[in-house]
Amino acid sequence: MADTARPKAVPTVQVDNERVRVTEWRFPPGGATGYHRHEYDYIVVPMTTGMLSMTGPQGDGQALLTTGKSYFRQAGVEHDVINSNPFEFVFVETELKQGGPR
User: Fold this and answer.
1) Cα–Cα dist 16/53, whole Å
2) Are 91 and 47 in contact (CB under 8 A)?
3) Is 39 part of any domain?
4) What backbone torsions phi and psi does residue 99 show, to the nearest 5 degrees?
5) Cβ neighbours around 83 below 10 Å, total
6) Is residue 87 part of a domain?
7) Are the CB atoms for 67 and 45 separated by under 8 Å?
8) Are 93 and 22 in contact (CB under 8 A)?
9) Cα separation of 74 and 77, whole Å?
10) What is the dihedral angle through the alpha carbons of 90, 84, 44, 1, rounded to the nearest 10 degrees?
11) Is 101 within a domain?
12) Residues 56-102: pLDDT tens digits?
C-alpha cells in the first residue's frame, strides 16, 4: 500500500523518441517515485551521492549511490524508490526502448 503522506519525486523528461527516454528525477528529502514496474532496460546516472531505499517484491533494501557512477538494470524491475537523505537527491535515468535502428 502506498504512503500517500510521502512527498513525490519529480520527473522531468529531457528526451523521448523511438529509441530512448531520458528523465531527470529529483527527490525531496523522504520523496518517493511511487510503486512502479520498469517496462524497458534502463541506466541510472546519479547526480548526487547518497542513500536510496527500495521496497518491492524481493523485500526492502538500501543502496548507496555515488555521483557519476552509473548502473544498469533489465526491464521488469518492480519497486518504490525513496530518498533516505535529509537533502534533495537527483539522478538521470535512460530507458532503452526496443525496436530502434541498429
Assistant:
1) 27
2) yes
3) yes
4) 90, 5
5) 26
6) yes
7) no
8) yes
9) 7
10) -110
11) no
12) 998 999 999 999 999 999 999 999 999 999 999 999 999 999 754 44
Cβ neighbors of 17 (< 8 A, separation 6 or more) are none
Other residues' Cβ atoms within 10 Å of the Cβ of residue 9: 21
Total structural domains in the chain? 1
Domain with residue 63: its CATH number is 2.60.120.10
Give the range of the structural domain holding residue 40, as residue numbers without chain letter. 10-96
pTM: 0.90
Q: Give domain status of residue 58, yes or no.
A: yes
Residue 89 CA to residue 87 CA, distance in Å, equals 6
CA separation for the pair 66, 78 (Å, rounded): 22
